[in-house]
Specification:
Helix content: under 10%
Largest sheet: 8 strands, antiparallel
Number of helices: 0
Strand order of the largest sheet: 1-13-3-9-10-11-6-7
Length: about 180
């Protein structure tokens, strides 16, 4: 049905891994818009704060490590005002969740919308809305904004990494949103 939210793939994030992918070999190119839902993403380290980073998966399912990642996010914190988090020409999108600390009970959650991933003549871009607990669970943190990959190419998903630590668990689901 046109306009329906159709589940394409689900990844359970394993403990001790430094990256995880969504899409790749399970990518369904029949959609124009995709939704990625991250649930209860946790770290193995309980003493260090981390940020979630992201890269495009190219048509061969490898991550694109070129310096073509631009983004403009707002970082929200419950203890103070917002922070501007823009950057250009990076080798990945950074600050997807702003900041969070590991341990059970301090997971990060988010929703991303992906556009132009099947269009070789246009840039891939996405929107981000995420939240988490930073500073050992004492502060609610969030990120909202958009990101663009300034390479005209077909993309087949995303790869998520961390600035420090490894993942302890979580879930990531890819949906097709509109044909």
């Amino acid at each position: 049905m046109s306009g329906a939210l159709i589940k394409i793939a689900e990844t359970t994030v394993g403990s001790g891994v430094s990256t995880f992918d969504i899409g790749g070999s399970s990518w369904d190119s029949s959609y124009d818009v995709y939704r990625v839902v991250l649930s209860d993403i946790q770290l193995t380290s309980t003493s260090n704060d981390a940020r979630i980073n992201c890269r495009i998966l190219k048509s061969d399912n490898s991550d694109d490590d070129s310096s073509n990642y631009d983004y403009a996010f707002l970082g929200f914190r419950s203890s103070t005002t917002y922070d501007n988090l823009p950057d250009t020409n990076q080798d990945k999108w950074q600050n997807f969740n702003y900041l969070f600390r590991g341990g059970t009970g301090y997971g990060s959650n988010g929703v991303l919308h992906l556009f132009n991933f099947n269009n070789a003549d246009d840039y891939n871009y996405l929107t981000v809305e995420m939240n988490s607990f930073g500073y050992n669970g004492s502060e609610l943190m969030g990120t909202s904004g958009s990101a663009i990959h300034t390479v005209a190419q077909v993309a087949k998903g995303l790869q998520f990494s961390l600035t420090s630590s490894t993942y302890a668990g979580g879930k990531c689901v890819l949906y097709g949103l509109r044909k």
